[in-house]
């Protein structure tokens, strides 16, 4: 149990509580966006389900080990993560909502409840604390890994739009602080998972450095891709519902046009086409007059022009 007799440990624990609280608040802009747009877009619920389960496990471990600092921050985490999931369930599509409810029922209620029931009934003393700490450490790793479930989406779209920067940053710093807290407390269940937590946090920060400029990296927003796909579907629907007109010539040289209406009935429209007027006959140009002939008589006579 941490108290004022260990001022350094207590100070590190308080700093860890503050940073963890900032980590918990990091998704607030994300869920405010969900609330404003009334849609979860491409956000996933898995990181928040895993974070809630991890907080529940650490809360149980803190109760067994009488660690006040772990108890306080994980109690707050359980409340806030539950609010996040409630907002997600309100605005999620039917399939995503069903998937999230299945996760909550199977993991946060079924798995956690079974573990607590087993430890309370079958395990005694320090062994119960050790098992609870080991399970909590394992799920702490899952909290750090969970945001990386969208790494494929980040690489495909070349955008970190759906991987919040502040969440990745505070996870990295918090991992460092809780690592030293575990060392000072000689609580390796707290220290060990934060080693990998630091590595995962650095990986997320590296993705932010690579894809922080969407214009230069050619990023394609999921919203833009969805809008383009929706417009393309609408164009295909309009094209399939449009009338099909075919023109044929009958034996008399008339054009028969066949149209299909919405009921699928066919109509024949006969259009008379007047034959084009014959081209004007060009008249032959008049022949030029024959050349004049001049006949000369004797020198003392005048010239006579013969036409």
Automatic annotation (TrEMBL):
Its membrane topology: Multi-pass membrane protein
Matching Pfam families: MtN3_slv
Domain of life (superkingdom): Eukaryota
Ranges annotated as spanning the membrane: 6-25, 46-63, 69-92, 99-119, 131-151, 163-184, 190-211
GO CC terms: plasma membrane
Gene3D superfamilies to which the protein is assigned, alphabetical: 1.20.1280.290
Keywords recorded for this protein, A-Z: Cell membrane, Membrane, Repeat, Sugar transport, Transmembrane, Transmembrane helix, Transport
InterPro entries documented for this protein: SWEET (IPR047664), SWEET_rpt (IPR004316)
GO molecular function: sugar transmembrane transporter activity
Keyword Transport annotated: yes
Subcellular location(s) of the protein: Cell membrane
Keyword Cytoplasm part of the UniProt annotation: no
Matching PANTHER family: BIDIRECTIONAL SUGAR TRANSPORTER SWEET15, RAG1-ACTIVATING PROTEIN 1
Family: Belongs to the SWEET sugar transporter family.
Function recorded in the entry: Mediates both low-affinity uptake and efflux of sugar across the membrane. Mediates both low-affinity uptake and efflux of sugar across the plasma membrane.
Subunit structure: Forms homooligomers and/or heterooligomers.
Stated name of the protein: Bidirectional sugar transporter SWEET
